[in-house]
Amino acid sequence: MSDKKTLVISSASQLLDGKTRRDFLRLMGVGGAAIFLPSVLTSCSDDDDNDGFGDGPIGPPNSGAPVVVDFAKGDIAIFQFAYALEQLEADFYTRVVANMSGFPAADQGILGDLKNHEIIHREAFKIILTPANDFTLNTNYGNLNFADRTSVLATARTFEDLGVAAYNGSAQFITNLNNLLLAGKIVSVEARHAAAIRDLIAPKSGSQGATGTSFAPTPFDDAFRPSKVRDAAQPFIVERLTLTNAPATFVQGPNNN
To answer: Which of 2, 28, 77, 165 is the most exposed place for a label (fewest CB within 10 A)?
Structure first.
């Protein structure tokens, strides 16, 4: 039985209910938690043909219709931007899980958890944005071999690092404290994902490993401006991510990026 600070979501259809969205936002504002039962994760997975979330034709990256993120919308735009990245990550890990039968058992457990986390992040933003601000992305990973452990983990590291840098960089533009709290909760999970992937690449390398393998390669995580995040994500997305009215001022992070 759930308490007043816990929201149990048992079906995908429940995610579209207006009351669910209101309860979700209220709970995030008071430090609550949403529990997504396994049935939600199953029904929210990728299409059976595994060709991305959308039903449109799959073409080269940056060749599809524009998906406009207008920063004049304030926090909505920030969450739309985050939603685009979460769609990409959820799609990526769903493909990984479908092709990882040859991976070590420990890898499979961790990658399966990461898949579920990213699906939850994606669906949470879908709730918050409502159909009025929703959009669907198709993905293209080029020649990436999803059955090759080395290639998969290298790409996962890229995505997780990018997600952390995106949230860190966008936080300065969030005006609502509850929204900032939610973003902070998600970025902390993304950072743990990045550390977990590095440990799979180079087990027990600790903080003394090479930059690409250490679980904490620098004292501070990166913070990227929206255009830098867009440029890094676009090679994997068919639709053209278009940023309008992006803030002219950006406060650099400790890593000066």
So the answer is: 2
